[in-house]
Amino acid sequence: MDKEESKKKIALGSDHAGFEIKEQLAAYLKEKGYEVKDFGAYSADAIDYPEPAYSTAKSVSEHSTDEGILICGTGIGMSIVANKLPGIRAAVCNSVETAQISKRHNNANVLCLGSRIEHSDSFEKIVDEWLNAKFEEGRHERRVGKIHSLTGI
Q1: Closest CA to 111 of 5, 3, 10
Q2: Which residue range forms the structural domain that includes residue 46?
Q3: Annotated catalytic, 93?
Q4: What gap in Å lies between CA 142 and CA 48, rounded to an integer?
C-alpha cells in the first residue's frame, strides 16, 4: 500500500452475527495502515442490523470515510439498508472474484459480507482484493451513471 492508500478511511459496521469478523477485520486493516471508523456492533449481544448498516453507509455517502465494509449473517440485510443512501453501491460478495468485479464493474463503495455464509476465500483476502481493485470506467461508467439517473440516489 502506498502512502496515499495508507490514509484511506474505512467504515466498519456489523450486527452481533458479524461482530467477531468485524473485530478481526478492524485489527487487520489497522495493521495494514488504514484508518478504521467503527460503527458497531460493540459486542456479540444481539442487535438489529439496520442501525450499524445505516451509520456505516451514511459515513461513506457523506464522504466522512472513503469506503465501507458491513458484516451480518448473510450480508443481504445490511446491503439493502446501505443501498437506500445516496451514492451508495453496496455489494454482497462471498469470494475474491465477486469482490473484484463489484469494484471493477459496479464501482461498489460498500462491501457486504456474510459471517454465516461459506466463503471460498478468507475474509481478509476478499477485503484486500476489494480494496485494491480499481473501477474500470468505460462502459461500466455509463452503467453506474444510469443507476443514479434511474433511481435518483
Answers
A1: 10
A2: 3-151
A3: no
A4: 36
- 103: CATH: 3.40.1400.10
Spell out the per-residue pLDDT of the chain, length 153, in tens: 444 555 799 999 999 999 999 999 999 999 999 999 999 999 999 999 999 999 999 999 999 999 999 999 999 999 999 999 999 999 999 999 999 999 999 999 999 999 999 877 799 999 999 999 998 877 667 676 677 667 766
Q: Catalytic residue among 72, 119, 140, 148, which? A: 72
Cα–Cα distance for residue pair 107/91, rounded to 1 Å: 10
How far apart (Å, rounded) are the C-alpha atoms in residues 108 and 15? 21
Give the Cα-Cα-Cα angle 71, 73, 78 (nearest 5 degrees): 50
Residue 112 annotated among the catalytic residues of the structure = no
Q: Which member of 105, 112, 140, 148 is catalytic?
A: 105
Name beta bridge partners: 32. Answer: none
How many domains are contained in the chain? 1
β-bridge partners, 90: 110
